[in-house]
Specification:
Two copies of one chain form a homodimer.
Chain A lengths: L4 H8 L3 H9 L7 E2 L5 E2 L2 H15 L4 H7 L4 H44 L6 H21 L1 H13 L2 H24 L5 H15 L7 H13 L1 H10 L4 H13 L4
Antiparallel strand pairs in A: 1-2
Helix pairs in contact in A: 1-2, 6-7, 8-9, 9-12, 10-11, 10-12
Chain A binds a DNA duplex through helix 2.
DNA sequence: ATACACCTTTACGTTACGTTAAGGTCAACA
DNA sequence: TGTTGACCTTAACGTAACGTAAAGGTGTAT
């Protein structure tokens, strides 16, 4: 004949303390109290508790719930709409926080590299950050989060020696590219050697090589004015296109 | 020679109580204490407070901030990343809450209409809700949010009389459609009259008529099995297709 | 009779302060 | 020199929604 606190709690999947607390704040009073002082709840209280838990699940405060359960349905709607507005504001706020935290993380990561390995003069991080910012979404969509995360991680964890080697290889790529462009043929042996060197260069940051990704990157070199400008300036005008064509042939992705 | 609590508070844009609280929890201790017991802060404390407020703005707990400010930069990064994960989870949770609250609001609005205007027997809201759920995104993308919002609003604000008229017109559409199908020709006068009646029927909920939207709806009738089933059952098999063809001719959208 | 599961009330802890309240301090002004 | 007003101090309660003891009574099965 009626549920005790623990029984009701088990029924509703909450703690007995919560039931007592709801009694304390007059949100849910027991149907009656036994001679020994035990709280006893009936069907009506079970129903009311269901209502309470429903609104609670929506994130409403207990005070509001209390008012709601004793108010006409009109106020109920108004309260829900007000609550929705609050939630929307909260979401915006959380999004702002996320943006700021991510910005800070990027900044700190840059700082660490700079202090830990001073020689890198911030260039690496800048590259990673820029890459991420500009192509993050795109590359992630194409090749998955893991690929790019691993690439960035590898990049940051390079030792100074590795970084020097990597830079030297990069210069070799540029030199060979210049020589290859003299042949005028992206399929020439020299041009293909350039593509091969470029592949080795990539392997410093990619943990496994992928022809499609390599070809995709080559296309990006041309599509992105920053990259185009870089190659055009470091080698000669048209270098980005030439490198792209050489790589497309090298990877066999030239349709 | 040093800031008092109020001076520091004004400098940082926080309350004196906050400063004292930070002292109490050993987050920010004064540089020294005057003979009279006044807390006095120097430049180092100002700097530390800046740091504290920065992390606080990111939503970090004071305990975490305290640990951060006395830990190497490595932990700092880890803490920020952990915090970011938390924020992402919170955003998901808030989004879930929003979705549920909105669902509940829709439900309650339906209920109100039902109690306010009992005759509507819930059909309207069900239609609106179903329409929204199934085609909301699609229609919104095509015709803009305003169109559909106004349609739903108009729908809900119909008087019982209007609703009755609307239903009668709906029945007329069905009757005429049945007769028109006997001609076998969607271009026939009767079929075109059906399309015209359907247009009038639509005008009950659309605040301005749009040929393209009308044609789009007609195509949807065939694409959506629920609508197809409805017309096929209310009229006869093939009714949805026939109505669509008639409307496409009526609107001149039959390619 | 006793063990065990359950009940009760009381009350502190949680977060980051806001808000009195009671009383001391400092600089300026009459 | 006294007083005023702005400031300082500590202490303590209030906030939301319970979790978690602690101390002691109840119900029932063995």
């Amino acid at each position: 004949m009626g549920y005790t606190v623990r029984q009701l709690a088990r029924l509703a999947g909450i703690s007995p303390r919560t039931i007592r607390y709801y009694d304390e704040i007059d949100l849910l009073k027991p149907a009656r109290v036994s001679a020994a002082g035990y709280r006893l709840y009936g069907q009506a209280e079970v129903d009311r508790l269901q209502q309470i838990l429903f609104y609670r699940a929506l994130g409403l405060e207990l005070k509001k719930i209390k008012r709601l359960l004793s108010a006409p349905s009109f106020d109920e709607l108004a309260a829900l709409k007000e609550h929705r507005t609050k939630l929307l504001a909260k979401r915006r706020q959380v999004e702002l926080l996320i943006a700021n935290v991510e910005k800070t993380i990027a900044l700190k990561e840059g700082k660490i590299t700079m202090t830990d390995q001073e020689k890198f003069e911030g260039f690496k991080e800048e590259l990673v950050a820029e890459n991420e910012e500009k192509y993050g979404a795109e590359i992630r969509a194409k090749y998955g989060d893991e690929t790019i995360d691993r690439a960035n991680a590898a990049f940051r964890n390079m030792t100074a020696q590795q970084y020097a080697d990597w830079q030297q290889l990069g210069n070799e790529v540029l030199d060979t590219l210049k020589a290859a462009m003299a042949t005028g043929d992206p399929a020439s042996a020299l041009a293909q050697k350039t593509a091969e060197l470029h592949r080795q260069w990539l392997n410093f940051s990619w943990d496994h090589y992928d022809k499609a990704a390599h070809a995709g990157l080559a296309r990006m070199y041309v599509a992105d004015p920053r990259f185009t400008a870089y190659y055009d300036e470091q080698v000669q005008p048209g270098a980005a296109e030439f490198l792209r064509d050489a790589i497309l042939i090298y990877t066999g992705m030239n349709q």
